[in-house]
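queue> pop job 88
queue> type: inverse folding (structure -> sequence)
queue> payload:
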């Protein structure tokens, strides 16, 4: 039996390659750097359901390559923090934020969200996960309890 293979490493390390781009376009119709099972229609619903505005401070759990977080920050003017356990995803996301001049508005951190999150109370007023699929002890999904604002609006894949 071979060692465990981290499949997300390939997608995030080769984010820029033509073949991965082509797969994303053929799968989703648009390229948000996705590795998820979420359709583009479902992704498009997130900002509306969270009522995002330029005053929103948003947490994305399991942000992967970071492209969707950057997309909503550009489109709605909100501040976004993206967390993912995968170091290559976070590296890619931070490179894109830097090259896109978005570092004042969007930040990405490597973080295991099954553990308590390192943010002060009321840091975020909305939280979502685009198929974060993040295992949480006893639940199998990221829990709202880990988000440091009990009043935050919750998008898909986050347990209230
Ligand atoms: C199906 S991918 C979705 C990624 C991205 N949201 C998208 O739309 O493409 C699931 C993501 O959850 C991340 N993840 C899994 N377990 C995690 C954990 N415990 N903490 C943080 N992120 C985790 C993975 O590294 C992966 O990037």
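queue> result:
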């Amino acid at each position: 039996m071979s060692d465990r293979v981290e499949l997300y490493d390939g997608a995030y390390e080769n984010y820029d390659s033509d073949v991965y781009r082509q797969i994303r376009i053929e799968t989703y119709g648009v390229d948000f750097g996705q590795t998820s099972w979420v359709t583009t229609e479902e992704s498009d619903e997130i900002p509306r359901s969270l009522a995002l505005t330029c005053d929103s401070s948003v947490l994305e759990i399991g942000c992967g390559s970071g492209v969707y977080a950057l997309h909503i920050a550009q489109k709605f003017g909100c501040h976004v923090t993206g967390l993912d356990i995968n170091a290559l995803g976070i590296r890619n996301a931070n490179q894109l934020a830097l090259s896109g001049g978005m570092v004042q508005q969007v930040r990405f951190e490597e973080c295991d969200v099954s553990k308590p999150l390192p943010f002060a109370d009321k840091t975020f007023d909305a939280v979502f996960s685009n198929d974060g699929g993040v295992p949480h002890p006893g639940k199998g999904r990221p829990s709202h309890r880990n988000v440091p604002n009990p009043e935050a609006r919750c998008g898909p894949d986050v347990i209230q």
